[in-house]
Amino acid sequence: MARIVARRIIAPNTVRMDLAAPKIARKRKAGQFVILRAAEESERIPLTIAMSDPAAGTIAVIFQMVGHSTMELGRLPEGGEVRDVVGPLGRPTHIEKFGTVVSVGGGIGTAVALPIAVAMKQAGNRVIGIVGARTKELLILQDEMRAACDEMLVSTDDGSFGIHGFVTQVLEQVIGRGGKIDLVLAIGPVPMMRAVCDLTRKREIRTVVSLNPIMIDGTGMCGGCRVSVGGKTKFCCVDGPEFDGHEVDWDLLVSRQRMYLEAEKRAKENFHIAHPGT
């Protein structure tokens, strides 16, 4: 059990939950995640550790309530308990002084981009943050990212805030300045990460992406999170979640993510029937 120390809505259907998990808070590194279960019979949910406070013994996770399991988790109250929290899991982000690092966060992916940006800055890199969302209301962690970066640029698809356009367009502008970019980190929806990789491949800029395929146990036993990278099968939970974006088989990743769309839709409908008004 993990007590919910704090819970708040930070954007439409987007929850930040601070959990009492002292051992995880002390051990976690940028890029790692936890697997949660809201209740005994709940589905396991992998969520990146967005922030941690070792002194207070807490970790923060941020997620959107978009399906049965995340809505079930999001309904838990402050002061309540999450049934299971397991972690930290996954390989930490490789942190070193590369030079200039661009951290691109799309939508909820900003919760993953933030701890990486913080760690890259602490390692002595010049960090440029690019944060984007469909609309102004869906932007998250702007202040935290701005504090972690030497420069931050914000975009919205509809132009309601910041630069009107996609994060890829902003990245292209940054590349167009002519300064050397040593590493790009892209975290967000699969189409966004794929588009970033298409752009950086042409410019021969090393690019790392954080993948979030279907995941069950988080220990490499079930094989549910397998992805193809460089023609080899990798398990995202133990070999990742970060990989060379130029070597990811994006078509396979997309097809695997769509495998359970109908089942997920039915589960969401059943949740709304069981919990009217949610």
Describe the overall structure:
- With 278 residues, this protein is α/β, with parallel strands linked by helices.
- It folds into three domains: 2-89, Translation factors (Elongation Factor Tu (Ef-tu), domain 3, Beta Barrel); 93-210, Rossmann fold (3-Layer(aba) Sandwich); 212-271, no CATH class.
- Helix content is 30%, strand content 31%.
- The protein has nine helices and 17 strands.
- The chain has helices spanning 22-27, 68-74, 110-122, 142-148, 167-176, 190-203, 236-239, 250-257, 261-274; strands at 2-11, 14-20, 33-37, 45-48, 51-53, 58-64, 81-82, 84-89, 100-106, 126-133, 151-156, 163-164, 183-187, 207-210, 226-229, 232-235, 242-244.
- The longest helix is centred in the last third of the chain and has 14 residues, at 190-203.
- The protein is globular and about 55 Å long.
- The model has no long low-confidence stretch (mean pLDDT 90).
- Distance between the amino and carboxyl termini: 25 Å
What's the mean pLDDT score? Answer: 90
Number of strands: 17
Q: What fold name stands as the CATH topology of the largest domain?
A: Rossmann fold
Share of residues in strands: 25-35%
Give the helix tally. 9
Task: Give start-end ranges of low-pLDDT stretches.
Answer: none
- Biggest sheet overview: 7 strands, mixed
What characteristic shape results from the CA principal axes?
A: globular
User: Radius of gyration over alpha carbons?
Assistant: 18 Å
The second-level CATH architecture of the largest domain is 3-Layer(aba) Sandwich
* Elements, N to C (H/E): EEHEEEEHEEEHEHEEHEHEEEHEHH
Structural class: alpha/beta
- Main sheet: which strands, in order across? 12-11-10-9-13-14-17
Fraction in helix: 25-40%
Number of domains: 3
CATH superfamily of the largest domain: Nucleotide-binding domain of ferredoxin-NADP reductase (FNR) module
Query: In CATH, what is the class of the largest domain?
Result: Alpha Beta
